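Batch job 17 of 40 flagged for manual review because the log was empty.
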Amino acid sequence: MPDDLILGVDVPAGVLWDFDGTLVETEHHWQAAEARLMRDWGAEITREQQLSIVGLNLTSAIATLAAWAGAADADHDEAGRRLNAYMLEEFRAHAIVWRPGARDLLEEVAQAGIPCAVVSASDSGILATVVDTMPEVFATVVGGDQVSLGKPHPEPYLTAAGRLGVAPRDCIAVEDSINGVASAATAGVPTLGVPFMQDLPSAPGRRILPTLEGISLADLGRLWQELRDA
């Protein structure tokens, strides 16, 4: 940590990162996996439908997909395992692409000694496949299977802040989805929204940025202070 920056005063005491669509470009892989599951049920999925479930937890996503497919008798647990398996195949077949500016900001935050967490709707097994290939900067990873209620419920962000030992308002969340910013907001976490596949509404305690490209640690600290004190 630079000598002139104090955690929880000048910069956030923790940074809580969404994963899919925020750190890395994985949403198109999820869409391929979702389309494959729908075809297993003899159905197709539209672009609009896929956009509507971005950031949704696995349980809710499977229930929604099954309803769209008319698969009333589907075993949701088995379908969730199959969707995750399809996603792992996608990850293993394609190189991970970072979202613009995400890696540079993550590395600057980590070098400053600010604790970081991944807070994702994806299951922890899926996340481990990719997070294990990244720089070792995350103090904890909160997957969708590690909480009782996923995004947009506040539990994922409250869990992450608790694991870091930091008050929610002393953290900042970085999110790309409607469900994600709602989860962070209800947890009381100041939030940067960086839209990817969904337009994000403005709200108190939230700043919408077109990209993380060019955002420095100093910028992050300034934005966090403005949002915390709003």
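Reviewer: the log was empty due to a logging misconfiguration, but the result itself is present. Residues 27-93 form one domain. Unflagging and moving on to job 18.
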